[in-house]
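user: can you give me the structure for this one chain? tokens are fine.
assistant: on it. calling the predictor now.
[tool input]
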Amino acid sequence: QLQLEESGGGLVQPGGSLRLSCAVSGFTLGGYAVGWFRQAPGKEREGVSCISRYGGGRNLADSVKGRFTISRDIAKNTVYLQMNSLKLEDTAVYSCAAVFHRGYVCPDQSSGYQYWGQGTQVTVSS
């Protein structure tokens, strides 16, 4: 059974950092693309970052470029999202998602992902 579990969310002040983790089980990262998405209250889900089965990562939102970095540890079967210089507008529930994907470039739309975690709350507040 394929499962994803996020952790690392919490309350942080503006300018602070958090590292989210997405631990996967039931499959290996080598065959799957994994994406991070977020949804703030009253807003649509937004793609944040994704990483391909080959390890190529990219940011999906212009607002996080230069601040967020996606990475993975194959041995730990975990994908990370390092978030620096956090802003009030980064407050949202962050979810990771996965899909079996042969391409070199990870899908940028949430509809392209099949398996989802429950999400972790990130709150940026002073």
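assistant: here you go. The chain has no helices and eleven strands. The chain has a mean pLDDT of 96.
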